[in-house]
Design brief:
alpha/beta; Elongation Factor Tu (Ef-tu), domain 3; Rossmann fold; 2 domains; seven-stranded mixed sheet; globular; disordered C terminus
C-alpha cells in the first residue's frame, strides 16, 4: 500500500498526489513512469513520475481526471492509499550534456516536462521551457520550471503570458537559432506540430508518447507505435522517441480505440451517483 502524503489541485481537472514509494524514489530517472492500480480490480493507469524526494521516500504523480478511473484516483485524500505502484518503468530520457534545450509542455504534459528540465539543469544545460494552457487557471508547474531556467507561458485567451499556442513561441526561439534539442510533451497534435517545425531545421526532437498501455512489460502489445520503419512498444522501448520518426496519424487512431468504452464507464458511474437505475442489460 502506498499512502497519500499530500494532495494539491493544480488546475480544474489536474491533481498532484505525493505518494509514499521509497524504493522508486531512490532510483527513478527523468522520463520514467509507473503503473498505478488504485485497488484490487481497478484499471491500471500509467503515470509519469513528475518529481521525487528520496529523503521522504515519496514520488509526485500528476493526474488529469478524464474518466472513471482517474476521477477515483484523484478523489483519494491524504492518509488514504493506492494499493499498487509498479516502477520505475520505461527508458530514461536521452539528455544532452551541454548546449541549449527547449522543453515544450502542453496542458498536463508540462508535468512530464518538469523532470526532464530538472535533469538537464543539473547537467549545466541551458533550459528554456515553453508551457501552455487554455487560460491562466490551466497553466501548471510554472514556478517549478522557473527554478530551472527561462519560462515562456502561452495561453489561448491571453489571460497569462503571451497569447497563442506553444508552437508560436517555439517558432520564434527556433528563428533566433542556437537550439540544440527540443523535448515536447502534450496532446498528440501539439507534439506533431512541434516535430513539423523542427524537422526542416534539423533540430533533434524528442516526444513522449501516450498510447494505450496495460502491463508495462511489452507483453500485451497495446502500446505499439510506429517509429520510422519499425514497430516499437512505448512501455519498454519508450515512452520517448524521435519525434521526426513517429507516425502520429496512427497514434491518434489507436488512442480512439476505447473511447466508446470509456464513455460507457463514465455514464454508468454518473447514473450510480445520481441514484438512477442503470439501463436494462447494463452491468455494474
Amino acid at each position: 500500500m502506498h499512502r497519500i502524503l499530500n494532495r494539491r489541485q493544480l488546475s480544474p481537472n489536474v491533481t498532484q498526489l505525493d505518494v509514499e514509494a521509497p524504493r522508486i524514489a531512490q532510483i527513478r530517472q527523468p522520463g520514467q513512469f509507473v503503473i498505478v492500480r488504485r485497488a484490487e480490480g481497478a484499471e491500471r493507469i500509467p503515470l509519469t513520475i513528475a518529481d521525487a524526494d528520496p529523503v521522504k521516500g515519496s514520488i509526485t504523480l500528476v493526474i488529469q481526471a478524464v474518466g472513471k478511473s482517474t476521477r477515483e484516483l484523484v478523489a483519494l485524500a491524504p492518509g488514504e492509499a493506492i494499493e499498487d505502484i509498479a516502477g520505475p518503468l520505461g527508458h530514461p530520457t536521452d539528455m544532452i550534456e551541454r548546449g541549449h534545450a527547449v522543453c515544450v509542455g502542453g496542458g498536463v504534459g508540462t508535468a512530464v516536462v518538469h523532470p526532464i528540465a530538472q535533469g538537464l539543469s543539473r547537467r549545466g544545460v541551458r533550459v528554456t521551457s515553453i508551457i501552455g494552457g487554455r487560460s491562466r487557471e490551466w497553466v501548471i508547474f510554472e514556478a517549478e520550471l522557473q527554478r530551472l531556467g527561462e519560462v515562456i507561458v502561452c495561453t489561448d485567451d491571453g489571460s497569462h503570458g503571451r497569447k497563442g499556442f506553444v508552437t508560436d513561441a517555439l517558432k520564434d526561439i527556433l528563428a533566433a537559432g542556437g537550439v540544440d534539442i527540443v523535448y515536447a510533451v502534450g496532446p498528440v497534435p501539439m507534439m506533431r506540430a512541434v516535430a513539423n517545425l523542427t524537422r526542416p531545421l534539423g533540430v533533434h526532437t524528442i516526444v513522449s508518447l501516450n498510447p494505450v498501455m496495460i502491463d508495462g512489460t511489452g507483453m500485451c502489445g497495446g502500446c505499439r507505435v510506429s517509429v520510422g520503419s519499425e514497430t516499437r512498444f512505448a512501455c519498454v522501448d519508450g515512452p520517448e522517441f524521435d519525434g521526426h520518426q513517429v507516425n502520429f496519424e496512427e497514434l491518434i487512431d489507436r488512442l480512439g480505440t476505447y473511447r466508446e468504452f470509456e464513455q460507457q464507464a463514465a455514464c454508468r458511474e454518473e447514473e450510480c451517483h445520481l441514484g438512477q437505475p442503470l439501463k436494462p442489460g447494463t452491468q455494474r
